[in-house]
Amino acid sequence: MSSDFEGYEQDFAVLTAEITSKIARVPRLPPDEKKQMVANVEKQLEEAKELLEQMDLEVREIPPQSRAMYSNRMRSYKQEMGKLETDFKRSRIAYSDEVRNELLGDDGNSSENQRAHLLDNTERLERSSRRLEAGYQIAVETEQIGQEMLENLSHDREKIQRARERLRETDANLGKSSRVLTGMLRR
Q1: I need a labelling partner for 68 at 20 to 30 A (CA). Which of 35, 48, 122, 166 fits?
Q2: How far is residue 135's CA from residue 123's CA, in Å, rounded to a whole number?
Q3: Comparing C-alpha atoms, which of 30, 44, 45, 40 is closest to residue 95?
Q4: pTM of the entire structure?
Q5: pLDDT (tens digit, 9 = 90+) per residue, 137-173?
């Protein structure tokens, strides 16, 4: 059983060495090769996990007296696997950042360009805010003028209605006066 474990250990050591060298090369490769290398490393990491599982099964079958030594080795292999996965994630993040920069056309002056762009946008926003504020003031003034005109028109309407009422009264009084005068003339 320990010979199987040692065989798995040798395979694991070779595989982790290959993975480590490939992870180190990922950032320096051209985009096409990077994509292929990332897929290759992912595959090898899966193989390494499977080897760890096989080794773990072998450790469980080892007699309890010597199991502690193999368990310690397994812990260190699992830590090494965790470190490899972390390193791979970091290289992938660097790779994805690089791809993002290529897609967006970012270069070394991007922070300067972004700062200038942000300042320009801020200035535009301030100008737009001032225009909106001026437009709002004009709208408020127009509303006040319209309100005053409506009030004036309302007063004028009341005056016209009162004048009409007086005219009707006057017309009625003239009609009465005309009848009285006509009656007086007949007598």
Answers
A1: 48
A2: 18
A3: 30
A4: 0.49
A5: 999 899 999 999 999 999 999 999 999 999 999 999 9
DSSP letters for the chain: -HHHHHHHHHHHHHHHHHHHHHHHHGGGS-HHHHHHHHHHHHHHHHHHHHHHHHHHHHHHHS-HHHHHHHHHHHHHHHHHHHHHHHHHHHHHHHHHHHHHHHHHT--TTHHHHHHHHHHHHHHHHHHHHHHHHHHHHHHHHHHHHHHHHHHHHHHHHHHHHHHHHHHHHHHHHHHHHHHHHHHHHH-
Calpha distance 63→117 (Å, rounded): 69
At position 9, the amino acid (one-letter code) is: E
- Asked if 52 and 116 touch (Cβ cutoff 8 Å), the reply is no
